[in-house]
Amino acid sequence: MTTKQLFDNTKVAFELKSDSELERAYFLFKMISHEPLVRIGTAATNFALKAHLPVEGLIRATVFDHFCGGVNEEDCLNVIDKMYSKGVCSVLDFSVEGKETEAHFDGAMETTLKIIRFADERKAMPIAVFKPTGFGRFHLYQKLGEGKTLTDSEQKEWDRVVERFDTVCKLAKERDVEILIDAEESWMQNAADVLVEEMMRRYNTEKPIVYNTLQTYRWDRLDYLKSLHHHAQKDGFKIGVKIVRGAYMEKERERAEDKGYPSPICETKELTDKTFNDTLTYCLENLNDIAVFIGTHNEYSCYLAMDLMDQYKIERDDNRVWFGQLYGMSDHISFNLAKEGYNVAKYVPFGPVKDVMPYLIRRAEENTSVAGQTTRELNLLSKERSRRKLE
To answer: Which end of the chain is more exposed for a tag (fewer CB within 10 A), N or C?
Structure first.
């Protein structure tokens, strides 16, 4: 395992942050480290937005500007260009959640198409992304995943979902922009997996363009990848996967308990880490068939990937291997990896302040539940504040 302390270099990590931005980051992570404050802040923010109180300016100047690139694509350009000056690319992520009308689904598709065209013109944006439920109702995925028959009107609705997927993946192939398709709750994921595999068959004939996402806190995901690999070898298409640990753990466990089926989630954090690292290893061992986007804030997993790339003589800038972190987090990983010549991209959420709040609240709650993550961010920010005072 790599012994060098690459991720301790705070000068490289926070070079783009002004002193005031550094102070804001320190303040935000300090707040997030206190669970009661996150709960109170979440409730107060939800209330203020619902009551139409004038809080958007305050939210924009603090938590929004730290974790989001802007309110629209053009608004994100400053963030995109600044990060690219240090070798870090951007994946623009339209982070409006919970909309369920055909107009919203068409709108989300048009936004994704716009981002692909936008990305095609900029080296700083080689990758685009969308969520399955951004393009169709959760209920349809769930019903199909459970093997139930859709009604005639539901079938027509599903055909439109397939058409949206196809329209986006087709343009991604034409423009040579990789498209990551996010994973969601396990009880809708089966239908999404089938649909994404179909898109891979259509558009990954020469190289990976379409990427599915594997949440490795699910104990079945490596087996799923091996099965997908078998299909790909048999039918002659390439695989793209983004691997992450996962984002819906509490909800998954509660539903499994309520409905009396075995939880799809690994029993311990250690088992999740093992599944992630085993999946990562499998991808790098089979790089001729599988391209991988390594979505992680875990330093050990990054060091493991670097070691395996050395071991298998994989060039640092090989386009089949990307590292990814969320904007506003783990700059010590992103910018230090980029400085060493690896492919690195930040997920940059954007959208109207009010519409992006569910995403931001989820971010804060996730950070609170991963205590070590927040402590590490705070320690590094403190170290950089001290370093700058001595300059």
So the answer is: C
Which segments of the chain are extended strands (E)? 89-94, 127-130, 178-181, 210-215, 239-244, 290-295, 321-326, 344-350
Q: Counting Cβ atoms within 10 Å, is residue 250 exposed (0-12), middle (13-18) or buried (19+)? A: exposed
Q: For residue 353, which of 49, 52, 107, 60 has the smallest C-alpha distance?
A: 60
Start-end ranges of CATH 3.20.20.220 in the chain?
A: 70-350
SS3 262: coil
* Contacts with 150 (C-beta within 8 Å, 6 or more apart), sequence order: 140, 143, 144, 157, 158
For residue 313, report the phi and psi dihedrals to the nearest 5 degrees. Answer: 55, 40
* SS3 state at 281: helix
**Cα dihedral: 64, 67, 69, 72 (round 10):** -50
Query: Which class is domain 70-350?
Result: alpha beta
The closest of 111, 106, 110, 115 to 136, measured between CA atoms, is 106
Counting every residue written for the chain, the total comes to 391
pTM: 0.94
Question: What confidence category does residue 26 fall into, taking pLDDT thresholds of 50, 70 and 90?
Answer: very high
The predicted structure's pLDDT at residue 344: 98
Longest dimension (CA), the chain: 70
72 residue type, one letter? N
The CA distance from 150 to 162, in Å, is 14
Question: What would the DSSP string read from start to end of 79-130?
Answer: HHHHHHTTT-EEEEEE------SHHHHHHHHHHHHHHHHHHHT-TT--EEEE
Q: CA–CA separation, 221 vs 33, rounded Å?
A: 31
Do residues 149 and 196 lie in contact, with contact meaning Cβ atoms separated by under 8 Å? no
Structure tokens of 90? Answer: 């951007």
pLDDT in tens, 166-198: 999 999 999 999 999 999 999 999 999 999 999
The residue behind tokens 């931005």 is 21
CA angle 348, 352, 354 (to 5 degrees): 115
- The pair of structure tokens assigned to 127 is 């990758």
Angstrom distance (rounded) from CA 138 to CA 188: 7
214 vs 202: CA distance, rounded Å: 20
